[in-house]
Prior knowledge:
The complex is a heterodimer. Chain A has two domains: about 1-80; about 85-130. Helices cover about 70% and strands about 0% of the residues of chain A. Chain A is built from four helices and no strands. In chain A, helix 1 runs antiparallel to helix 2. The radius of gyration of chain A is 23 Å and the shape is flat. Chain A starts with 18 loop residues before the first helix and ends with a helix. Chain B has one domain (about 25-50, about 65-205): Four Helix Bundle (Hemerythrin (Met), subunit A) (Up-down Bundle), CATH 1.20.120.80. Chain B is built from seven helices and no strands. Classes of the chains: A mainly alpha, B mainly alpha. At the A-B interface, helix 1, helix 2 and helix 3 of A face helix 2, helix 4 and helix 7 of B.
Amino acid sequence: MTDTAFDRPPGDPSMPAESEERESAGVLVYTIGLLLAVGLTATSFWVANTGLLWGPGVPLGLVVLAVAQMGIHLVFFLHITTGPDNTNNVLALAFGILTVILVVVGSLWIMADLNHNMMPRPELMNLHMQH
Amino acid sequence: MNIAVALSDVPPELAASEAGPAPKRVVVAYGFWIFLLSDIVMFATLFAAYAVLARATDGGPNGVQLFSQTSVAVETACLLASSYTCGLMSLAVKSRRHLGTYFGAFVTFALGLAFLALELREFADMIVRGDGPQRSAFLSAFFTLVGCHGLHVTAGLVWLVVMMVQVVLRGFHPTVQRRLACFSLFWHALDIVWVWLFTVVYLMGVRA
């Protein structure tokens, strides 16, 4: 029985029929993923510690590196692909990412705005302290 | 359509509406994928709380004074390597090799335990110095976020031991294989959370 008519579950690599071949192909995929992830991690640590880069740009660079590494993990370790048998997995992931972005960016935006607008002037601060 | 079937030897792929229910393997892994995504949304709320409170140190220590990059680098290496060995273990499970499965599980467990030991030592050092979660809003958020990830790793280690007992007792039964597939999804997802942890908490923290 084959599963060709069905979606591929997440974490399930696409495998050639031959058993020997698929074993070594699977190892190769994980090894490539590991090497890429190690490279990106090392770059992140370097970026955070070097004085060569423009300071204010470093946090953005770190976020970009983390996004890249998340992509590596998703593709090489969780085997999320763009294939038609992966549509459900990708859609669920996209909704998850949307929710994460809304929660994190929304919180940061609202709280930064709040800090900016509600910063009490010194005399107000004193009034506040009397109560 | 029937004529086409008669003419060609290759049976056509069934339409989705005719294929019947998906195999349990697919349904279980997809359900677990949904759970993982909701778990990641929960982590996102903790990340948001941490990011908002990261500067609320109340005169206490900040990240620059608290975090050791060497320790974080070793923890990252442990978790990344354990993710790799977990992948190798799932390959061994697929081809039903007992020895490969036990070995992969053992290395994964050992690396996970090393990660946890380093993290606990870091926590203990901070609490002994009086920089526990009650010190400032920053430290409350820090211990909640990093501790929650640590709890997930602990749960993963317990799960791995339980799964190895099941492999010993029941062999590569389809149920056991499905559970092992879910475990490796869980373990890889924890590594993704850790990527954001070391980026946001530790690397951005030591520069602030």
